[in-house]
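FIELD: query
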Amino acid sequence: MEHVTMKAARLHKIGDFRTDTVPVPVPKDCQLLVRIGACGICGSDLPRIYEHGTSSGVYPLTLGHEFSGTIVAVGGDADPDLVGRRGAVFPLIPCRQCDPCLSGHYAMCEDYDYMGSRCDGGFAEYCLVPSSWHFIESHNPDLSFEELAMLEPACVAQHAIRKGAVFAGANVVIFGAGPIGIMAGRWARISGANVLMVDVVNQKVTFAEGCGFQTLNSNDPGFLENVKAAFGGALADIAIEGTGFSGALENCIHCIKPFGRIVLMGNPAGNTQITQSAHSLLPRKEATISGIWNSHFGNLPINEWRYAVEMMDSGKFTCGDLISHRVSIEDVPTLIQSIHDRSVSICKAMYSSACDHK
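FIELD: result
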């Protein structure tokens, strides 16, 4: 290793998030040392920094769980041929022993660790990864580290589309035109669906329209009739709720056909409440409501992460155009503070190592 110290953005206590100089970790056993290429800022990072603290109670902790990079060193039990390979990192560290893990449902692990919230993650120049099992290699040298760093949210979006059983010709309405919502729309289109993107923020509606989607602002008068008009007079077969707000869930219920499906993708933004009239439509329509939690890393029926990298490598799935802000590792805390106090408006923001060398 040419460097013995590195920069890392670490949470010292609630509200105290800063960039420190720390030793570069040394891999042992099956571990990989990854030089970070990029690490995305997730919406969950803000409450972690300003409200809840780390999930493990460990401080200081390097945050960041959406990251990519290059393997630069390995432990003694790892394959040395891995050095030089580039890709993304699956941040969940499951126990691999509980019933959910044994059935391949690692997101439901009963005793897990997690890079970026329970142990050190990707807001650093280097990160230790437990083993090659966590590394999803890209075989396209032209695919940027920034796009690879969006693999985690891309897989959340893909998982929502799979859970909704989206089919070719389906009418799909997606509430929340942020980066994950737009990526869900792109996965739905790959499945052959008709997609309608909905938000309450005109700026997001306009951005989604610029991405080629039909769009609506749900605050506009005659919203339900506008949904029908977008789908040629029909309601939606599937509604994806990606905001966590009660109003969006209420609209999902009204927007779906009888026997339609609703997928809850967004974390609740408070106490969820729906009206009696919307509640009564759930049994009347015999609606199906499904939740999703993260994504699926098991090989059956398909490893969503490896599939997503294949689709990115081939150019069939793209998301780099959703990145609106890039900063150096030194500026990660400042950007997150600006996002928190709403002095900047983002689509997708991230730490990019390319900014460290400008």
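FIELD: remark
The chain has a mean pLDDT of 97.
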